[in-house]
Amino acid sequence: MNLIETLEAELGKDVPPIVHVGDTVEVHYLIREGEKERVQLFTGTIISISGSGIRTTICVRRIVQGEGVERIFPLHNPRVEKIKIMRRGDVRRAKLYYLRDRVGKKTRVKELLGERARRNKERDAKIVIALEAAAADRKAARAAKEPAPESEEPAGDE
Q1: What's the confidence (pLDDT) of residue 29?
Q2: Strand partners of residue 59
Q3: pLDDT per residue over 29-68, tens digit each?
Q4: For 154, phi and psi rounded to 5 degrees?
Q5: Burial of 10 (0-12, 13-18, 19+ CB in 10 A)
Q6: Are 18 and 124 in contact (CB under 8 A)?
Q7: Considering the entire predicted model, what is its pTM?
Q8: Assigned domain for 141 exists
Q9: Residue 53: its pLDDT value, please?
Q10: Which residue range is the domain that position 77 belongs to?
Q11: 3-state helix/strand/coil string of the chain
């Protein structure tokens, strides 16, 4: 493993959320306002996924008061508390930038239903199981690397 892969294994989330372009998601993002922290929700459609590994980002688009709003979220950012999938989208493109030019009901993405939805769900479940196993292996390897904490003997008679 090279240095970048080692850092990615240490810093990344153990099991990142499995999302696809076209999915409608609710992103729970931790924001800081002065001294206080709170969770802000951003609900929208994923129009692109970029990067790989720890650098993966998603671009989520929604319409607010007639204006399109897009936010880019790094998947492995500790401020992204969770990503809840509201519905799966049925799209044939890797980037849905064409939605920027559409207005009203034309911006809707068809929902993925039926046999394809079931197959995708099974595939995603297998991926999650593999990721959890890999995370457990990494955790065990880290625990084996770290030396056992030495117990300090109380200062007695010297």
Answers
A1: 93
A2: 48, 72
A3: 999 999 999 999 999 999 999 998 888 999 999 999 988 9
A4: -65, 145
A5: exposed
A6: yes
A7: 0.75
A8: no
A9: 81
A10: 3-112
A11: CCHHHHHHHHHCCCCCCCCCCCCEEEEEEEEEECCEEEEEEEEEEEEEEECCHHHCEEEEEEEECCEEEEEEEECCCCCEEEEEEEECECCCCCCCHHHHHCCHHHHCCCECCHHHHHHHHHHHHHHHHHHHHHHHHHHHHHHHHCCCCCCCCCCCCC
pLDDT of residue 120: 82
92: phi then psi, degrees, rounded to nearest 5: -120, 15
Distance CA 15, CA 134 (A): 9
Distance, C-alpha 16 to centroid of its chain = 5
Query: How does pLDDT run across 99-110, given as a tens digit for each residue?
Result: 888 888 778 888
Amino acid at 139: K
Is residue 21 included in any domain, yes or no?
A: yes
**Domain total for the chain?**
1
